[in-house]
Amino acid sequence: MKEHTVIRAVSRILIPFIQLFALYVIAHGDLGPGGGFQGGVIFGASIILYVIAFGMKDGRKVVAEKTSDILNSTGVLLYVLIGLLCLLAGGAYLEYTSLAAFFSGGEHSEHAKHLASHLGIYGIEIVIGITVAAVMITIFFEAARHEDD
Amino acid sequence: MIELVAGKYNYWIYIVLMMIGFYAMIAKENLIKKVIGINIFQAAVFLFYVSMAKVTGGTAPIEWHEAHVYDNPLPHALMLTGIVVSVSTTAVALALIIRIYGAYGTMEEDRILEINEGRDMGDTL
Amino acid sequence: MALDLILLIIIVICAFAAVQMRDLLSAALVLGACSLIMAVIWTRLNAVDVAFTEASVGAGITTVLMIAALSRTRRGEEGGEERDMGWVHDGAANKRFIFRHIAMLIVVLVTMGVLIYGTMDMPDFGDPDAPAHTHVARRYIEKSREETGVKNFVTAVLVSYRGYDTLGETTVIFTAGIAVVLLLRKQRR
To answer: Which of chain C's residues have a Cβ under 8 Å away from the Cβ of A113?
Structure first.
């Protein structure tokens, strides 16, 4: 892989834009097409591109085995915690509108409920994005051939 | 008759696609081919679901001030998760195939069965 | 309608080619192409979220994973032509092979017949009065804006109304990741 200068140069330029696009997709899931799944996969794909261009060892320097393992499980854990947070605020499990209790006491206005619902949905989208990206990166690292095989 | 064909032809094409996947799953000996068959089968199911969500004259299920009719968003949401689950199952299947190849040196189903039979006979003798 | 028909026929041809190709790397790439055309079909069916997912997951990640798996196994099918065509010199094995394939073909054709018979009771494509559109879907479309404040109904259904489903689904992805790690990670001491 040492001689692939063009691939390396191009992917070095492209990867930041791919990652920015992934974050855009996650953040705009409620306004248009997109969301946690798509954004997470695109983010994972940017790391996979890096690994393909620069090799497994350099790839592991960017995303250490420990980092991807921890991120794998963080996603589901945070998802459950958001659900529990809604219970704590007095609503049903994953009822985001009840999160309004944390920033407006007593009777919730329509605006506060919308804000709470938005916060909950953003939280879930980000959490899904983390899980999907981390799992895709992990699967690729494990499935691809290692240099020392 | 023409009405029948015009209303249902897409379902029939999905069924043909599904049967191609089904045939690959049961008739091909190569395990990777079986995984490809599963993928095609799943794609046919997704197509079937999403086409049920279509309403004549409907627009994409995103709020728009000029829209009068929207397509049904529920199958879209279900199939979105279905696609991600399908890639997960594919990943696990491929991991299993890599391990099988490591253990048997082949990924043809009949060869694996032959090797297994040989091993059983070796055990009993 | 003509464009949709052409796209669907291309998909059927791609699927058939992916199943029949002897070179597994080509088969994986043809499957990726099939997914990409599928994304176009989904855009035509107004399922933009699904199209987005298919283009990134089906055409991208699945193909990459297939190629990664092939790099650690073998690129072509074993056995060569003679086994697939049934021209094995052993007469009994030959007969068994042909019998098996005819039986499988009958199973596939019977299943196809039953399924096509089943579509006769299905609502027509695009029928606005189909049962799928008359129950919860109407509520999602009419109420989701004021109940969740989200413009994209698919996101509202996915994350808010059916948050439980998505939780289970995230768990499935997580489990798949763990399973792959358990199967493939090398033990180090």
So the answer is: 149
DSSP C34-74: HHHHHHHHHHHTT-HHHHHHIIIIIIIIHHHHHHHHHHHS-
C175, two tokens: 């489990």
Q: Is there a contact between A37 and B94 if contact means CB atoms under 8 Å apart?
A: no
Per-residue pLDDT tens over the stretch C59-88: 889 999 999 999 888 877 766 544 555 455
Please name each of the domains of chain B with its CATH number.
Answer: 2-56+70-124 (1.10.287.3510)
Residue among B62, B84, B98 minimizing CB distance to A132:
B84
Each domain of chain A, given as residue ranges in start order, spans 5-143
**pLDDT tens, residue by residue, B17-64:** 999 999 999 988 889 999 999 999 999 999 999 988 888 888 888 888
Place of tokens 């979220």: C49
Please answer whether residues A115 and A99 qualify as being in contact, where contact means their C-beta atoms are separated by less than 8 angstroms.
Answer: no
Say if the Cβ atoms of A33 and C176 lie within 8 Å. no
ipTM greater than 0.90: no
CA distance C50 to chain B (A): 5
Asked if the Cβ–Cβ distance from B92 to C180 is below 8 Å, we say yes
* A124: exposed, middle or buried (Cβ count in 10 Å: 0-12, 13-18, 19+): buried
